[in-house]
C-alpha cells in the first residue's frame, strides 16, 4: 500500500483542501514546511526528504478551475526528484490531452469524471491505460460528473462500465470528508470489497493510522494524505508502517512480575506469531516483569521471538504515544499481577504497564487481561518447584472489578487470547 502525499495548488501555492469548497481553500499551515515556504517544490521536498514519500498526488486547481496551469512547477519537482512518482490531476480532457506529459515526464495522469463530457475520450487513451487513473469525486455519496447517461446509474454500475473499457486504476474519495479528519466513508470501503481486482486509491478524512489500517486490510493500493502529514498526526514512522507489506495487525503485550502463567503466556505469543505472518507483537515489561523473566530464565526465549521489547525506564513513558497514533489493535496484559490489577482498577498509572492500561482506556483501545489471582486456591510455578497460592479477598474482588471496565475482557488462561483476538482482527 502506498502512502500518497497530496499537494493542492491554487494561485501557484500549496493550499489546504477542506470539504471540496475550492473557492475557500487557504494557504496551507504545516509543521513540516518552513514558514513562508509553501511552494509546490517546497512541499514535495518536505514529503520526500522528511517523510520518505515516493509518490505524490498533485491537484492543479488553477487548471481545474480553468484559470491557468502549473505544469512548469510540476516538471521542476520531477527534475529535482526523478524517483518521486507524480500523479497529476490538471483537468485533462480531449482539449487538454495528458499524452504529451506522459511521454515527457509524468508518471500517472488523472482523468476525472467531473471533467470529461463522455467516455469516448477514454478510448483515445487505450495505449496508456497503465498510466491512467480514473478519478471519481463524490459529494456525500453522489458522484460528481457531466455525463448524461449516468444520471440514474449507481456508483457500482459506473465503475463497472469504466472497468469494461480496460481501466484498472481508480481514485475514489468523498470531497465532503477532505481535510475534516472524519475518516474514510464506509461505502468507499464497500466498493473495494465489490471490486477486489481493481487498484483503488482513496483518502479524505484520514486522522491517523487507525483509519488507514482498515484500508490496508482491504488491500487498497494507496491512501491520499495531506492534513495528517501537515499537522503531525502521521510522520515518517507511520509512512513506513503504511507501506510495510508484512504488518497488518499489531498487539501491545504487557508482562508483569508474575511467575504464574508466565511460561504459558510466552507460549501463546510464540504460537500467535507462528500462525500469523502479518502480525507484529510489541512486548512491554514492568520492572518486576523483567526481573521475573530473568529469574525464570525466560528472557532469552522472549528475545528470540524477534519482538520489539520495551522496558520500564522512563517515568513519563513516551513510547505510549504509539497508542495515540493508532498502531495497536488490542492491548494484552498477561500475566498480570495483583499489584497491576489493583492499579488498573483504581486508575493508578505510575509504571509503564499501568500507564499503557490507563491510556488504552482513554483511547478506547480494547484490553485483554489475564490476572494471576483468579481462584481462591492456585498452584503456581516457582523456579524449580510449584507452590500453593491463596489470593486475598481484595485480590479476588479486584479481578472481579476488571470485567466491569469498559472495553476490557478478562481471561483465565493465556490460550483464551486467541479467541479474544477474533473480535478485533
UniProtKB/TrEMBL annotation:
Record-level GO cellular component terms: cytoplasm
Start and end residues of each Flavoprotein domain: 250-407
Record-stated family: Belongs to the HisA/HisF family.
Molecular functions (GO terms): 1-(5-phosphoribosyl)-5-[(5-phosphoribosylamino)methylideneamino]imidazole-4-carboxamide isomerase activity
Family matches, as InterPro entries: Aldolase_TIM, Flavin_trans-like, Flavoprotein, His_biosynth, Isoase_HisA-like, RibuloseP-bd_barrel
Protein origin, superkingdom: Bacteria
Pathway as given in its UniProt record: Amino-acid biosynthesis
Keyword field: Amino-acid biosynthesis, Histidine biosynthesis
PANTHER family (UniProt xref): 1-(5-PHOSPHORIBOSYL)-5-[(5-PHOSPHORIBOSYLAMINO)METHYLIDENEAMINO] IMIDAZOLE-4-CARBOXAMIDE ISOMERASE (PTHR43090:SF2)
A biological process term (GO) from this entry: L-histidine biosynthetic process
Protein name: HisA/hisF family protein
Amino acid at each position: 500500500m502506498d502512502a500518497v502525499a497530496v499537494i493542492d495548488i491554487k494561485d501557484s501555492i500549496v493550499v489546504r483542501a477542506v470539504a471540496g469548497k475550492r473557492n475557500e481553500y487557504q494557504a496551507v499551515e504545516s509543521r513540516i514546511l518552513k514558514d513562508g515556504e509553501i511552494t509546490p517544490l517546497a512541499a514535495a521536498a518536505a514529503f520526500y526528504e522528511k517523510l520518505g514519500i515516493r509518490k505524490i498526488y498533485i491537484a492543479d486547481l488553477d487548471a481545474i478551475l480553468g484559470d491557468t496551469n502549473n505544469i512548469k512547477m510540476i516538471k521542476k519537482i520531477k527534475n529535482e526528484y526523478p524517483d518521486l512518482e507524480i500523479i497529476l490531476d490538471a483537468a485533462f480532457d480531449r482539449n487538454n490531452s495528458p499524452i504529451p506529459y506522459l511521454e515527457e515526464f509524468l508518471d500517472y495522469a488523472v482523468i476525472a469524471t467531473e471533467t470529461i463530457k463522455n467516455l469516448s475520450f477514454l478510448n483515445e487513451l487505450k495505449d496508456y491505460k497503465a498510466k491512467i487513473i480514473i478519478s471519481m469525486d463524490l459529494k456525500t455519496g453522489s458522484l460528481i460528473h457531466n455525463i448524461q447517461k449516468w444520471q440514474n446509474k449507481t456508483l457500482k454500475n459506473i465503475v463497472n462500465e469504466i472497468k469494461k473499457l480496460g481501466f484498472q486504476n481508480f481514485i475514489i474519495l468523498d470531497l465532503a470528508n477532505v481535510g475534516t479528519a472524519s475518516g474514510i466513508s464506509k461505502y468507499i470501503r464497500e466498493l473495494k470489497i465489490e471490486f477486489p481486482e481493481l487498484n483503488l486509491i482513496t483518502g479524505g478524512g484520514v486522522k491517523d493510522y487507525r483509519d488507514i489500517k482498515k484500508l490496508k486490510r482491504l488491500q487498497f493500493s494507496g491512501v491520499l494524505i495531506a492534513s495528517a502529514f501537515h499537522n503531525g498526526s502521521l510522520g515518517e514512522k507511520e509512512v513506513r508502517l503504511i507501506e510495510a507489506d508484512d504488518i497488518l495487525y499489531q498487539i501491545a503485550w504487557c508482562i508483569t512480575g508474575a511467575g504464574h502463567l508466565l511460561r504459558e503466556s510466552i507460549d501463546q505469543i510464540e504460537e500467535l506469531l507462528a500462525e500469523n505472518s502479518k502480525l507484529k507483537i510489541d512486548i512491554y515489561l514492568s520492572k518486576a516483569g523483567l526481573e521475573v523473566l530473568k529469574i525464570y530464565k525466560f528472557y532469552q526465549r522472549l528475545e528470540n521471538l524477534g519482538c520489539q521489547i520495551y522496558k520500564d525506564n522512563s517515568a513519563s513513558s513516551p513510547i505510549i504515544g504509539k497508542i495515540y497514533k493508532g498502531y495497536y489493535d488490542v492491548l494484552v496484559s498477561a500475566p498480570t499481577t495483583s499489584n497491576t490489577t489493583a492499579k488498573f482498577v483504581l486508575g493508578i498509572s505510575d509504571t509503564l504497564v499501568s500507564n499503557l492500561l490507563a491510556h488504552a482506556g482513554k483511547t478506547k483501545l480494547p484490553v485483554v487481561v489475564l490476572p494471576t489471582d483468579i481462584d481462591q486456591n492456585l498452584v503456581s510455578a516457582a523456579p524449580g518447584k510449584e507452590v500453593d497460592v491463596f489470593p486475598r479477598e481484595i485480590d479476588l474482588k479486584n479481578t472481579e472489578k476488571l470485567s466491569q471496565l469498559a472495553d476490557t475482557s478478562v481471561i483465565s488462561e493465556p490460550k483464551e487470547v486467541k479467541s479474544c483476538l477474533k473480535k478485533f482482527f
